[in-house]
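Supplementary notes (optional reading)

For those who missed the lab, this is the record we used. Protein: Crp/Fnr family transcriptional regulator. Length: 155 residues.
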Amino acid sequence: MSIEQEVEALKSIPLFANIEPSRLKLMAFASERLVFKQGQELFHQGDAGDAAYILIDGDADVSVDTDAGALVVASFGKNDFVGEIAILCDVPRTATITAKSELITLKITKELFFNMVMDFPEMGVEVMRVLAQRLEHTTSRLTEARNALREKGSA
């Protein structure tokens, strides 16, 4: 994939839609293109958060460790952005991301990510929007799970 193709891929991601192409070109050039095979982990829950990943092609599962083993809680695909929570909050990874198929990514280091947010405040607003949507989705799923457990317990 050429730099121009990576820039086009970045432009199709809402997070980067309003950033000028020359900046996206710099970002694509400064990021690392990685390919993961099916079943390979991008990162594991509890790892240090050193980078975020833009999924250029392929699909990935998000899982969390439970007493009963790994539980898949979400899936991501082309044009999604993963791993930003650990770099934004400076906390260990909150989940494990595993490739469901061959997965082509751009690895965005913490330093590059923060430089982009500082240069483009609208990108920070978009990050907040995406995180708020994920929080709402997670809260809904937790509520559904709690209600299912209550129903099971009263049966």
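If you only remember one thing from this example: The first helix runs from residue 3 to 11.
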